[in-house]
Amino acid sequence: MLLLFSVLMVTWATPASAEDLNVYCELTGRSAMYQDDVLTGWGVEIVQEIMARVGSTNEIEPLPWARAYETVLVTPNTALFSTTRTEEREQHFHWIGPFVRLQWILVARKGSGIVINSLDDAKKVRSIGTYIDDARDRFLLRNGFLNLDRSTSNVLNYRKLNRGRIDLLAATPIGIVETAERAGVDIADLEVVHVIKEMDLYLAINKESDPQTVTAWKAAFAEMQRDGTFAVIFSKWQPGQDIPYDVRLPWRE
């Protein structure tokens, strides 16, 4: 009993080590994809570098977006990339990034004759394909769109557009070529008719995650920015694009 008590006292007196994060992603475009059965992409490389720096031994797990998002929303010590940072989501996560800045766009079939000069114009078309519960879908819902054709698959949205079942789809330029190809749609048959806005993609960490872990992950990413590693990875996958930065970072004068 004395030995057991001593062991317990040592255990209680030892500071708890930081918890590891279970990291999820969606297979989408070049952020996360398989090449020769190896998970890769610009998002994957950035997160893997953070994990290497903090000593994480977990594997990144691809999941469907809605399942991954709901898991990270309610489960401590979990994270998800690449997640659009919006006002609606701000309070629910810790944020690491930005990884990339991208446009939200409305895409039509080439030659459709659809002209969109504002969001009000977009409300007048018959239907807009969206990906259920992604940031663009939620944004359009909050802005009063009643003409959304919400789908569980981005690939399906491209097929619907190509067959004339929807008039527009909400998308981003990143991954549009790969997704259209998977849908069997020639990208040359599509055109951007409106830019909704620009947004940034981040790694989102559950708000109730271990504070020590969150601090370590944020520090690792900041160090990647300082030592140029982030710029190397970004430029490899996004040549010619401006490297995004968070204007609130205290080290960036």
UniProtKB/TrEMBL annotation:
Q: Does the keyword Signal apply?
A: yes
**Which InterPro entries does the protein's record reference?**
Solute-binding_3/MltF_N
Keyword list (alphabetical) reads:
Signal
Signal peptide bounds: 1-18
Q: What is this protein called?
A: ABC transporter substrate-binding protein
Q: Name any one Pfam family assigned in the record.
A: SBP_bac_3
- Coiled coil region boundaries: none
Q: Respond yes or no to whether keyword tRNA-binding is given for this record.
A: no
Q: Which residues form the Solute-binding protein family 3/N-terminal domain?
A: 35-237
Q: Which organism is it from?
A: Pseudodesulfovibrio sediminis
PANTHER family reported in the protein's UniProt record = PERIPLASMIC SUBSTRATE BINDING PROTEIN FAMILY 3 (PTHR38834), SOLUTE-BINDING PROTEIN FAMILY 3_N-TERMINAL DOMAIN-CONTAINING PROTEIN (PTHR38834:SF3)
Residues annotated as transmembrane:
none
